[in-house]
Amino acid sequence: MIKKRAFVLIALALLLVSSPRPEIAAQAGRVTAIRCGRLINPVDGTVTQNAVIIIRGDRIEQVGAGLGVPGGANVIDLSAYTVMPGLIDCHTHVLLQPEDERGAPPVVVKSQAYRTVQGVAAAKKDLEAGFTTLRDVDSEGAGFADVAIRDAINRGIIPGPRLLVSTLALTITGGHMNNAGLNPDIPVPEPASLTDSRDAMIAEVRRQVKYGADWIKLYATGTLRHVDPVTLESLSQVSVEEVRAIVREAARWRRDVAAHAYGGDGAKNAIRGGVRSIEHGMLMDDETLKLMVEHGTFWCPTLSVYIPEHEEDNTELRRRIVASHKEVFQKAMRLGVKIAFGTDVGAYEHGTSAREFVRMVDYGMKPIDAIRSATTRAAELLRMERQIGAIEPGKFADVIAVEGNPLDDIRAMTRVVFVMKSGQVYKSPR
Ligand SMILES: [Zn+2]
């Protein structure tokens, strides 16, 4: 009997230690008032001057112009800035760093421990750049370290955005996220899970959910090395039946699937198979874009990451891919594809994702729509539209401020001076 009670107590203690603790639990009920110079509401596209946001604990309580500040409230003065909801990046890799894209693969030259430390620093940088939520789509060979970073953030151990993680991605032998060009006689860990049959794919979805995945990431096509330089045809890695099996298994656990797909049959199979979002998609044809509209599939374009940063990357193939990306983006806007903000940050420096806004507007998107892609639209992709993506009563108090007016000059999005996540301030104007 005593033994049984001790067991129950230990189990309870473990549960308390392991359950995510909202970082603001200590200040639950505390009231904060934010005075905004200009408040952008992505829901209806309106701009309000001199609005006040009232926050209680981790939630928005009231918002509007002419609101009185409750007595005893902590007042934050952002009257010199433009205020908007915390941003959401739907395609990130906190465990990937720019140097991992050049030279030896990180699974060969870096320990998991070192990569995790780098991931902790990356998460902080992305948060301070105004991104209060990230969908992190693939730990890039760092195993389940993304789960560890997510949990440490939720427990208030380290600062970082609200993370939705995908752990290892599903791919096939020889496809994307395989180490290429290595001696086959030396065993080296592969960056993704090689799943070569439908049964293996289903089992891998179960394993990833078991160890903490919020999302399932699938490589539905290959990468740049798998693109035919003449025809721009992209290697398809999955059949529609395989995608359906993965999506159905993920749905059992209430998870969604994000599919890396450049175009061709791989993209079409992913859409027909029921994935929630297509990543990259720079070689998609009109038929594929129409399929996306028909199926309600979201698109994370990740435009900036394909712009060569180094002269040796500025190849003919890359120039053709970048040109196609722009064209597909403009067609997708015209056809009404649901475009959600996604960057692939990690392949370039963490904390600089806002460059994607500049690119989107440069390619013809209205600034308010670019902001929507990273707030209301992104929240919808994540099925979190009741919690994040807008400054409305009942939602998490995720609030940022920028210098200048991004509706006039989108580059203001790169000048984030204030970041609040769940009612807690992580960055303030000097
Ligand atoms: Zn990526």
What does the model show?
Helix content is 31%, strand content 23%. It is α/β, with parallel strands linked by helices. About 5% of the residues have low confidence. The protein is globular. Helix 6 links the parallel strand 11 and strand 12. The longest helix has 20 residues. Strands 1, 2, 3, 4, 5, 16, 17 and 18 form an eight-stranded mixed sheet that branches. The structure holds zinc ion. The site of zinc ion has 4 residues, from loops.
In summary, what is this structure?
With 430 residues, the protein is α/β, with parallel strands linked by helices. The protein is built from twelve helices and 18 strands. The site of zinc ion (ZN) has 4 residues, from loops.
Shape: globular
How many distinct helices?
Answer: 12
Order of helices and strands: HEEEEEEHHEHEEEHEHEHEHEHEHHHEEE
Helical content (DSSP H or I, runs of 4+): 25-40%
Please give the number of β-strands. Answer: 18
| Regions with little confidence, pLDDT below 50 for 5+ residues | 7-26
Major β-sheet profile = 8 strands, mixed
Span of the ends, CA to CA: 60 Å
Q: What fraction of residues sit in β-strands?
A: 15-25%
Compute the CA-based radius of gyration. 22 Å
